[in-house]
Amino acid sequence: MKYSIAIPTVLAFLGSITLALSASPKVEFHQRVARSKDRETVQDRLRELGDGSSEKFEEFRSKQLARSAATGVTALFLLLFLSKPLLLSGLTASLAAISIYVLIDKQLSNRVKNHQLSVESEFPAVIEMYSLALSAGETPIAAMERIGISARGAMAIEFKKVVALVRSGEPFHLALDGMGREFNSITIRRFVDSLIIATLRGAPIIEVLQRHALEAREAQRNRVLGAAAKAEISMMIPVVFLILPISILFALWPSLANLNLFSSG
């Protein structure tokens, strides 16, 4: 009986907030989403995944807030149903909602990181294909179109975008510059800048591509070695804190048992 008015109180509080809004809840919600302080950073991460438009940002943020709110409300009603104190229920529900909000943002960052690793891993092969196509006598835009059709992955998709922009009348170097801005990768940015300079100044493009392919292979090798080093460190944790203590315990247990027998005798 003590908590019988808790749920109506919560619903009345939510209703009063809705009535206090200057516009309808849906319009007010979209306005507040559009004014988010981290809009640019989230859109940059979404852009790396292929779509950084305002509609995509609003869709992502709406799902993020909706799931957080649903988690918080569910936790609140569950704790109130279990007759927990109202203050404790509110704090726990708020913590659950904030945790889901941060978790979804962290998942987006992990997706971007995995996407960057995937792009950089396929970058050397794509550049070698591009170099071979140019060596066979194709123009830079024709070689990009061929790779965009025959290959798969993020680089092939970006090559298709560059070809579409050039076909629509945009200069080749501007389309390349736009492709370089799509990725938060120093390797790809350097490749795009070198290709733009070689195209504008008439330098031999094949030599530039071969040099960047070698640099990309070396960078990929360094990433693999770095990941292997981190794996070695992580594998030492169970060895030092689990296997080694058990081995020492098995080695010392007979001596400890004999000492106990002598002391008891």
Shape designation: flat
Order of helices and strands: HHHHHHHHHH
Percent of residues in helices: over 70%
Uncertain regions: pLDDT < 50 for 5+ in a row? none
CA radius of gyration is 29 Å
Number of domains: 2
Distance between the termini: 66 Å
Largest sheet at a glance? none
- Beta-strand residue fraction: under 5%
Q: How many separate helices?
A: 10
Mean pLDDT comes to: 78
Count every beta strand, where a strand is a DSSP E run of 2 or more residues.
Answer: 0
- The computed structural class is mainly alpha
Descriptive terms for the model:
Receptor-associated Protein; mainly alpha; 2 domains; single chain; 265 residues
Indicate the topology.
Elements (H helix, E strand, L loop, with lengths): L5 H15 L4 H10 L4 H10 L5 H28 L4 H50 L4 H11 L3 H14 L4 H11 L3 H16 L3 H60 L1
Helix pairs in contact: 4-5, 5-6, 5-10, 6-7, 7-8, 8-9, 9-10
